Amino acid sequence: MDHQLSTNNQILIRCSWLWVEDMTSQYDKIIIFDCDSTLSSIEGVDELARVAGESTTQEIEKMTAQAMEGKIALESIFAKRLEIIQPSADSVAEVGKLYIDTVEPSAKQVITTLKDKGWTPIILSGGYRQAIKPLADYLGIEFIEAVDLYFNEDGSYRDFDRNYPSTRNGGKPEVVKSLREKYSPSKIVAIGDGVSDLESKPVIDMFIGFGRYALREKVKQEADYFITDLQEVVSLVGDW
Predict the structure, then answer these.
(1) Max Cα-Cα span within the chain
(2) CA distance 97 to 177
(3) Distance between CA 51 and CA 58 in Å, rounded?
(4) For 17-41, what is each residue's pLDDT tens digit?
(5) What distance in Å separates the CA atoms of residue 225 and residue 202, rounded to the nearest whole number?
(6) Which pTM was predicted?
(7) Which of 4, 31, 103, 119 has the least C-beta neighbours within 10 A?
């Protein structure tokens, strides 16, 4: 009886190991995309600001640009922008539609090709999960790492997930490290336009700066590669 239990345990352990190995192999190569000004031409938070009027829009756009260029800390403006805008659930849903309307033209084809070549695409953003999800669904991206917004029962703005890493500088590398620990991929590549994306460079295998919609000089100078056409990603990493 004891021998039989031992044998069964060995079988269970072996089966469990095989399952873990299979799950890990699914995510052997991870490619991380920023959302705003990368997969779409817009900055979602700037679009949310438009409902609050022109002066508010200009104020928000200035803060966003300064943060993406690394001139001010992201955490110094993250809560402030939302407090000024007070986005409703309906306005966030409208931005979700706008992301699709302004999608980077080659994004869907690029992501399909990369998936066929064994890459798992992930969106990692300082934007808002509820707004990004429609775009992710449209592009066939299953994994979204972004900030959750919280609303009251009437749809009015209540708060955001203040503990989520991408609400602050240095947060995106934290998320990348957790992905590496969870899936043990052999390669991680990241693509984005902002300094917050560039911060991931020390913890990934390749950082690709993207400058079609917003050219940040620091990103251009320090990226492993800098592109203005998303299709170039395929030639850089497709068969790697």
Answers:
(1) 78
(2) 31
(3) 12
(4) 343 444 445 799 999 999 999 999 9
(5) 14
(6) 0.86
(7) 4
Report the first-to-last Cα separation within the chain, whole angstroms.
51
Burial (CB count within 10 angstroms: exposed 0-12, middle 13-18, buried 19+), residue 203: middle
Name 172's Cβ contacts closer than 8 Å, sequence gap at least 6.
124, 126, 165, 166, 196, 197, 199, 200
Could you count the other beta carbons within 10 Å of the beta carbon of residue 60?
24
pLDDT tens, residue by residue, 153-206: 999 999 999 999 999 999 999 999 999 999 999 999 999 999 999 999 999 999
- Beta strand 206-210 with 225-227 is parallel
Classify residue 42 by its DSSP letter.
Answer: S
Which of 28, 36, 154, 197 is catalytic? The answer is 36
What count of other Cβ atoms lies within 10 Å of the Cβ of residue 46?
Answer: 21
- Spot the catalytic one: 28, 34, 148, 197: 34
167 contacts 81 by C-beta, under 8 angstroms? no
Containing 177, the helix (H) or strand (E) segment is helix 171-183
The kind and range of the H/E element at 134 are helix 129-139
Tell me the pairing of strands 149-151 and 206-210: unpaired
Active site residue 34: yes
